[in-house]
Structure formats: structure tokens, C-alpha cells
Prior knowledge:
The strands form 2 sheets. Strands 2, 3, 5, 6, 8, 9, 10, 11, 12 and 13 form a 10-stranded antiparallel sheet that branches. This protein has a 4-stranded antiparallel sheet with strand order 1-14-4-7, with no helix packed on it. The chain is elongated. The longest helix has 17 residues. It is an alpha+beta fold and 310 residues long.
Amino acid sequence: LQGSPASSRGPxxxxxxxxxxxxxxxxxxKRAKVADYVVQNCYNxxxxxxxDHTFNGIMFDVRVKTTLPLKCIEIQKVWxxxxxxxxxxxxxxxxHQQKISRYDWKMVYNGTHKESTTTLQPLVFPTPxxxxxxxxxxxxxxxxxPDDEGLVYNNLRSTITHEDPHIYIMPGMAxxxxxxxxxxxxxxxxxxxxxREFVGRVTYGVTWMLWNPSQRIHARxxxxxxxxxxxxxxxxxxxxxxxxxxxxxxxxxxxxxLPWDWAGxxxxxxxxxxxxxxxxxxxxxxxxxxxxxxRERAMEALLGDLDSVI
Length: 310
């Protein structure tokens, strides 16, 4: 140790031991905020297939849930079956409702496919479609085949066509014209038919958030994960705890590397419906404020400390 920076500062007894509370905060701020991979595996969403109808197109909405700490989803392709032919896929921000003009939509796919009445065929997007939590997007899939066998779709059977932990696929309306957005149907008269459902598959990937010392980010993680973080941080505050020897930056880096379901998934409810979900979150927030006790106030104080670092 002779000649080292530590030995040149005088004996250990005369130096004050640094307090580790937030001294590593500047380093902690350099941690990643979003996972640097798109997905560990892709998700395939298969809708119900009752083979009720075939015609030229189907319009429907995709909604991203806010119940899990995902940064975004990327829709990579959709799968359909039918007579197919020249296929196009269009998207619009927000819902598809009241949008039957080409000028409200952007074409994201154009290709020709052979007939496939029994097997789903993929329509791969050149650029994946990225959606944020809480975001909604209208999608329109169209076949230019000059008859009534272009695409298979269903009659309306539910208020939600499909639900998984990340997204909703909502019902929509069918199109009976071989011209995209054409107002006149195959048999004459209006070309749009309400109360229809998409039949096929949606393939998408997920980019996950990483934990960081911020109330806004902390609140996006499941309750079990939040409790785990707060328990360790409260132990770190106690002088007699071995964790007191570690700088906060070390704990932050460890937390940052944990997947969102590290503490389990038993208390995660991902089956809430789109409409009441927002109202339910508001009621839960007000209830938590009314029932806030010493433990909850201590947690808020800890998170307040973390927020002040950023």
C-alpha cells in the first residue's frame, strides 16, 4: 500500500468512513432504462376461427395494455387465409371507427399471395409497427381478389376478439369491395359491414422497461416486485444491516438487471377490460391514498429520496 493514493491520505483512524446512501447515484443514472433486446421470444396471437364469411377486407383495432412494464410492442406480421391474391395492409393512429377514407390510413404492406384456404399465410411488414402502452391502432387488411373469397372473417361474438397479457384485438367491420376503401360493395350498395371479427394471427415482440430509481418507473412494475425493492431499500437504511455497506449504486445496478417478473406473477391481473380498466385504476389509487399507513408513508419517503437523486 506504500505510495498508493489511499496511504497518502493519512491513517485510517483519522479518516471518516463515507456514508453509502446515495453516493453512487451519479453512476446509477447511467444504467439502461430500456432492455437492449426487442424480445426474448415472439408472441403469436391466434383469434377464433369459425369460418363464418369470406370477402375482401377486415378492419379492426389493436390496443396495448398498461398492466405490465413494457416499453413498447412491435407488430412484425399478420397471418390470414382465403383466396388472398394482391394483399395490402393499412394502419391508422387511434381507432378505425369513422375512418373509411384512404387519406386517413398509411399502407404498411403490399404483396401477392397464392390461394390458401386452410393454412394461415404471413404478411411480413418491411418495418415493424411500434405501439406504446395505452396506445391504440386501427388495422385494415384487404384482398383485391375480384370475387367474395379473398379473406376469411367471423361474425361478432364478443366485445373483445382476443386478449392476452399485452394486447387486445377488438372487433371491427368487413369490406366487400375489391378496391381498397371502395364505397360500393360486390353486390352493390354500401361496402362496409359492421359487427365482424378478424380471423388469423398477429405476431409481435415486446421491449421491456428496466427498473430505475423513479416513482414513475417503479409504479409500472408489479406489486410483488415493488415490495421486494422497497424491502431491500428499507434494510439498506438500517445501520445494523449488512446491506448498509453497499453503495446505493450497487443495489440499483442489481435491481436494473432483474426481469419484471423476478418476484413472481401471482398478484398480477392482466385480464381487465379496456373500458373499466382506467376507472378501476383511479378507484384503486384513491383507496390507497385513504388507507395509507406508516408503512406506505415510509415507502413514499424512500421513493421520494430516489426521485430527488434524478
